[in-house]
Amino acid sequence: MQIFREKIEIFVIFWANGLHIRKKNSIFVSFLGVIGSQIKQIKQIAKKHTIQNQIIPIMKKVLSMFVVLLMSTMMWGASSSVPENAPDVMLQAFYWDSYPSNSSNLGYGNTGWSALLNQADELGEYFDLVWLPPCSQSSGGTGYIPKQYSNLNSDWGSETQLRELISKLKAKNTRCVADIVVNHITGNYGWCSFATMDFGDYGVFNPDASWICQTDEMNYETSAGTCQGKATGANDDGYGDEANYTAARDWDHKNSQVQAMCRAYLKWLKNDVGFDGWRYDYGKGFHHSHINDYNSAAGAYMSVVEYWDGNPGVIRSRLEDAQWNNMAFDFGTKYDAINNGICSFNYGKCKGAGMLGAGLSKHAVTFVDNHDTFQRNNSEFGGQGNSMLSNFKDRLLQANAYILSMPGIPCVFYPHWVTYKSEIKAMIEARHLVGVHSQSEVKDEYAEEGGYQVTVVGSKGYLILQLGNKVGGSFDGFTKKASGNGYAMWIMTNTPVEHTYTVAGNSADVFGTAWAPSFEANDMIKQDDGSYRWEKSDLVLKAGTIELKVCEDHGWDVSYPAENYQLKIDAAGTYTITITFNAETKAISATATKTADADPGDEPGDDPQPAEKD
Ligand SMILES: [Ca+2]
Ligand SMILES: [Ca+2]
Fold this sequence. Notes:
TIM Barrel, binds calcium ion, five-stranded antiparallel sheet, 4 domains, eight-stranded parallel β-barrel, 614 residues
């Protein structure tokens, strides 16, 4: 048994090392910790029990470990759809019914593909992500009741226009986010005849009623006619009363064909159409383990779900369901900090709100309003509904300043953008200049009913946001980048530390003194292109090798290169020596240019001193 135990241990350690060699990153390092604890467990089991009693359980244990290890390895093989320290600012580039043929458009203009294409240069300049409305052929209008995923002609425009829009934004380094409606589908005609989903190289799918949940209304609505009873899929695995969407047919996501179709759909959207992320519509309708499945298959830059719940604890559970391979719209921040806080004269609620306050900022997409809250529910934004843009300009801008200062990925709403472009542009610039990102640290928060102030740490500096009665004063080193009634955004960018670079070498003839990093006469001069240069002429030298280094800040602690740089002097003569140094790449180059041959009467100086310094 002793031998058997050792074999297990050796095998597990071997496995762990193999993985470690394969990919050395933090996930695998933490994974090694898990393996370590499993080795301990095996040791404990073997110690506790006799040989006869333990051979089978230990083997079972090893086998189950195998399964866990294999599954884990497969998971890690897939890429995450949650960007690290994301500096992105997103635009929701539509609102309810803003498609071109709807003439009312609430006064903010239509957001069809062609209208957005005309704005692409400006959008690309300010936004890193642009969320487009559902782009598949649907029952019409905004498009949340899809018919045929693979058909990209919709009320928003044609497939050609959509592809052109995506390429144009991509050329501006802006990623497009698709709005994907995978909870449900509607019949191509009738209740149970569905369109073919043709994703080309990614697969062709012919769904039928057996792909629909048996809990769907198709089975009990009398208007379903002959389709009634034909939905034979599993029970809907969504959440609570809203798992089944009664206005369309709910896919059975436990069906392997439905799963294959969804994976193909997303791979096609990403690799063929050009989207770099997606927003899952109706996230209450299906279990979020499927989100992890589909995201792992397609590997987009980012993925976010609409799960309409203001409780960050509930959102945390959904993120766990998706194995953390997802983000979520932060309804908690929307309700607590924005509606009940900024819009309701209580800035005290700006502190610790929603997903941001719950430590979930890496997975949060924050917003002030969206297509649903904005038009459909007049109680949103503190009860002002659609009139808020004009009547509540100050508070609306304060709310935008809040999301654009805080961590998470902020999502600006199109009607806000077009109404207050110059103000929002200044806010986005402030965020980008100091590199506030999805996981930025929030500190020095002061929140009370009348005002709020916070410092947010960016990758390139600091941002201070003031709201309400906190607005005012000044901060050492900070400049006010964006401001209006009741808000101010101050920024301080980290200025790169200027170093001194000095040449030191083994030849006193060349350097005045040998190996002297603090000898200011040998300080290099910074050039317009940012490089450093040192030059000395009329040096009478004999053949040999000059060794040198470039030293940072007059000391040996930091010096380049690691081994001394060697400059060969081929023949005696008079030389000009030029040394350049690139502080970014640490590359050194030195040249010795002969300006006169050696005069036989010349008396060259001392031999270079052999001592090497490092
Ligand atoms: Ca349904
Ligand atoms: Ca469902």
